[in-house]
Amino acid sequence: MVEDDVSGERASVGRRLIIGGARSGKTAHALALAKSLSDARGVNVTYVATAQALDQEMQHRISLHRAERPATWRTLEAPAGLAQALRGQDASSMLVIDCMTLWLSNALLKDFREDAPTAELPAWESERADFLQWLQAVRRDVLLISNEVGAGIVPLSPVARRFQDEQGRLNQMLAAACDEVTLVVAGIAVPIKTFRGGRLTT
């Protein structure tokens, strides 16, 4: 684990999970952190977008996200085949993956059946396994943005319940694989897993 000094703090080079609810400020925190780290280290940033502009609302949301990030950042669109797309990237570039939730949703909907809500999801299970394998092996700065969806009520529809379950499992797997995990609440970043001085703290 390599460490650099960023804004007066010791910051590990590695995998970071930034998690929070809707409109919690998690994306803003991730973008600010990526800019700070990339400026300090003199590296390029690749923003990996998993959203698909399937309707006017999503097109509007995507345009807002584009306006939030520096124009110098490269954008890679990877709504599916995420690990495969990442393996072809410049190894020196920092990655911001936004977001794990939409990537999950894209894969889950390929196989989900209302009449068999607990059945296996081959497309999602393959995507998840491939990405986790990539994440375990990667040795550069990666910032993952993901939603916390388990703090509310149990959803009414079978697909929403399955999505909530899969998102919770995915977040646990990502947190286990990442060197640092930050929970963003009301715009405030709360460290819940850190790597400092060669040892893990939670």
TrEMBL record:
Keywords: ATP-binding, Cobalamin biosynthesis, GTP-binding, Kinase, Nucleotide-binding, Transferase. The active site is at residue 65. GO terms for molecular function: adenosylcobinamide kinase activity; ATP binding; cobinamide phosphate guanylyltransferase activity; GTP binding. Pathway: Cofactor biosynthesis; adenosylcobalamin biosynthesis; adenosylcobalamin from cob(II)yrinate a,c-diamide: step 6/7; Cofactor biosynthesis; adenosylcobalamin biosynthesis; adenosylcobalamin from cob(II)yrinate a,c-diamide: step 5/7. GTP binds at residues 49-51, 66-69, 77, 98. Transmembrane segments: none annotated. Its EC number is 2.7.1.156, 2.7.7.62. Pfam families: CobU. InterPro entries: CobU/CobP, P-loop_NTPase. One of its GO terms (biological process) is cobalamin biosynthetic process. It catalyses: adenosylcob(III)inamide phosphate + GTP + H(+) = adenosylcob(III)inamide-GDP + diphosphate; adenosylcob(III)inamide + ATP = adenosylcob(III)inamide phosphate + ADP + H(+); adenosylcob(III)inamide + GTP = adenosylcob(III)inamide phosphate + GDP + H(+). It comes from the Bacteria. Belongs to the CobU/CobP family. NCBIfam families: PRK05800.1. PANTHER family: BIFUNCTIONAL ADENOSYLCOBALAMIN BIOSYNTHESIS PROTEIN COBU (PTHR34848:SF1), PTHR34848. Catalyzes ATP-dependent phosphorylation of adenosylcobinamide and addition of GMP to adenosylcobinamide phosphate. This is Bifunctional adenosylcobalamin biosynthesis protein. It comes from Steroidobacter agaridevorans.
